[in-house]
Amino acid sequence: MLALVKKTHIEISIHGEHVDELLAWIRKKYDVTVLADEPEDESVSIESTEYWQEMEKNRIGNLLAGARLKAGLTQTQLAEKLGIRQNMVSDYEHGRRTCSDAMAKRLSMTLKINEEHLKYGSEQLHEPTTEA
User: Fold this and answer.
1) pLDDT at position 128, please?
2) Residue-range definition of the domain harbouring residue 56
3) Cα angle vertex 71, ends 77, 52, to 5°?
């Protein structure tokens, strides 16, 4: 059984005898949601989850935002490095603007990520771009 305790968001997996008794005891103190009763129900393809589908809608924007944050930059700082307006960076990150090949190259060099990551429809997600 896979249960989720909502109050402090704790996930636990309970197996064996007296699972129902233990769950009843936990429910006395916490709001609990049982995610799966049977072991075969525990595994769900990530691609079938709402979270994955929502993230996939703006995969490139999420990657760009993550790379920017990993580089320790604000949208304004990244915009200054690229010579563009901050709202353009926001538009890229929120999927309201697509990256041209030239902008993908500039972003990849600035953030030290693979240029292919920033191109829509690309499945090549491996090594960072380096300039010769």
Assistant:
1) 45
2) 51-118
3) 110
